[in-house]
Specification:
Layout: E1 24-35, H1 38-46, H2 54-67, H3 69-72, E2 83-91, E3 96-107, H4 112-130, E4 138-148, E5 155-156
Antiparallel strand pairs: 1-3, 1-4, 2-3, 4-5
């Protein structure tokens, strides 16, 4: 089957065969945020969360999850990532922690799901570490913001 699809000729789900695709440098960047009370954001920055250093633990969780995306998302290819980065920034005006994750490799398939997974798990980790002090936190705005490499070319969100 030459068409890239998760559905085979019998209508059953399958992993896409990417063996004929050209290897290229591939990069994806995703962003998201976790919204919280101002006191919670200050507590994180001051290192006062009882479970420890929120940013360090959340960053590590995001990186580790990108490496395990194929175990979490059905039909994703297990990928030998070359680089994963997670950046966290407190935004007091918006009342949130902004999360940016990037994933890259040289290969036959993109790394969008790895970057998106890293953002999601980073946000969930922050939630888990802070839920005892703020049960009203909201995770949102998770989206792909940039992708390069591959046949479809470069994507950049507005």
């Amino acid at each position: 089957m030459s068409k890239l699809s998760h559905i085979d000729s019998n209508g059953k789900a399958r992993m896409v065969d990417v063996s004929a695709k050209k290897e290229t440098n591939r990069l994806a960047v995703a962003k998201g945020a976790i919204y919280m009370a101002p006191e919670t954001l200050k507590l994180i920055e001051d290192g006062g969360v009882p479970k420890g250093d929120v940013f360090s633990v959340a960053r590590l969780a995001g990186i580790m999850s990108a490496k395990k995306t194929a175990d979490l998302i059905p039909l994703c290819h297990p990928l030998p990532l070359h680089d994963v980065d997670v950046d966290l920034a407190a935004d007091h005006n918006k009342g949130c922690v902004e999360i940016t994750a990037s994933a890259s490799l040289y290969g036959r398939t993109g790394v969008e799901m790895e970057a998106l997974t890293a953002v999601s798990v980073t946000a969930l980790t922050i939630y888990d570490m802070c839920k005892a002090v703020d049960k009203h936190m909201k995770i949102g705005d998770i989206r792909l913001t940039y992708k390069s490499g591959g046949k479809s070319g470069t994507f950049e969100a507005d």
